[in-house]
Amino acid sequence: MDIADVAKRTGVPASTLRYYEKKGLLKSLAGPGQRRQFAADVADRLALIALGQAAGFSLDEVGAMLVDLQVDRQMLISKADELDARIRRLQAMSKGLRHAAQCPEEDHLECPKFQRLMKLSAAGHGKKQGSSTVVLKRPD
Question: Which residue ranges does the record assign to the HTH merR-type domain (predicted)?
Fold first, then answer.
């Protein structure tokens, strides 16, 4: 299947297919200067790449798993634990936003539940940014 067919059938842009090939995630069967041809299982490999990315793995981590098709089970457990923690944070934020939508307080910044939502959000944001605290204040 050539690159245009793969792009059309999978919805993955040709530029992404070329990038994945450059990173070693995909292999084409054509030589230099020829139109790229991919094996029949390319859609399955693309689905595995998408699954890995959706689970939070980097392309390098996905590539390592695809090279020898050996999966580091401890890495999978660690990633699942990270996803569970993220889900808990997102569920708490969802509850907080629903509360804010119906909150009787005139100013959301005065609402204790909304305050907790802001702290939760700041804690998650601070971890990603490498900072331990983020201060949120109401503008005067």
Answer: 1-68
Number of H helices, E strands in the chain: 6, 0
List, for residues 1-15, the tens digit of each pLDDT value. 999 999 999 999 999
Which one, of 110, 102, 105, lies nearest residue 138 by Cα? Answer: 110
* pLDDT for 132 beyond 70: no
C-alpha to C-alpha distance for 108 and 110, rounded to whole angstroms: 5
Integer Cα distance of 133 and 139 in angstroms = 19
| Token pair 């900072």: residue | 131
Query: For the whole model, what pTM was predicted?
Result: 0.64
**Residue 108: other Cβ atoms inside 10 A:** 17
